Amino acid sequence: MSAGLRNAVEVEKLLQLNRNQLVAAIIGIINPLLLASVLWRPETAHFLAGWVLVGLAFCGLQLRAWWRNRHRPRPARAPRNLDLRVCLAAALGSLYWAVLPVVAIPQADEAEVLAVVIVVCGTGVGGAVLLSLVPLAAAIYFAITFVPTIAIVLARIPETPWLLALLIFNLFVFMTVTVQRLHQVFFTNWANAIETSRLAEEARAAERTKAEFVANMSHELRTPLNAINGFSEAMAAQLFGDLGSDRYRTYAQDIQASGHHLLEIINDLIDISRIEAGRYDLQKADVPVADVLELGRRLALQAAMAAGVELRVQVPVALSARLDRMAVSHVAMHVLLQAVRSAPSGSGVELSAAAGPDGALTIAVRLSDRVGPGPGAAAEVAGGPALGMQLAQALMVLHDGELVLGAPASDLVAEGRFPPGTATGVSKPG
Description:
The chain is of the alpha+beta class. It is built from eleven helices and eight strands.
């Protein structure tokens, strides 16, 4: 166990001991009053009154310490002499209970002796359990409380069989093993809990660091990329004169296309990092679903035209839904791009939407007019969902929905399922 983990466990032990003081104080108030009422007689009145007052004063100190410590912030370290303090307190508390049998039992009748044995020994057992976080203190409390009481009883009743003494010894061994076991369980459980909490906090810190790194690096990369894209676009359009060779214009177009592609990847990384960091806020509003999907189609249109794939949108007329317009259009765009990567040239891709009776909205992307192999083989060659699909899935989760990928052999590429109540207006299909 590392020093930091051991210190954390020691601090938790200190806090648990303070919580146990409340239980000990309540027991310490009730039991002395109970025994004093049973043993009260004129010849022991002064002793019992003083004994009860001492016990109440001790319990008052415990309650005061418990009340003060419960409002304090969690300490950084536990006192070095914590175990020694607990042992001294256990010795004083057990001596308080050991005095009563020595004075009261010789003058008590059998019923009173039984009451003293039950209460004192029960207090010894309960105190040992409460002090099990410090095994030595538990052993001191149990021994000093228990042994004198049994010794006085055996002296008072000489005919007590030795079998009873053996049972008492077995009880002492049992309590010793129980206290040791409770101590081990406490340390094991709290050590595991603290270590798990530490690992979770380290994971959260690493996630925050990663998100901040991606956001910062993405910003640093976007600035020069915008310049590259702008200059390459100007060169490809030959705004300031002829480049002199068609190859230069082709190179400029390639640079522009590559720059735009890299910029899209960076933008996706930024969005994913914002979602993971919990900094992506949806701007939901009632919007026409056809407009949202048409925007997604236009965003994917250039890639589709380059691949020779036709994109079509089929949405019921006046279907509206409460969602984030830009986020869902990007979901549609990324799923369409995935479909374009999967579709052979000359095929078509259909983007559709439908609403259920409960207002659950479904957006689906399917292949149509296939002229070659299905999407399964192409998708496998492409290596599965790309970064854009990961972003699409994350955006669907933000909408309390899910993005379900189609089976390899089916025409369905993916289906976005929004929760009930998303669709706010439906009319006849167009």
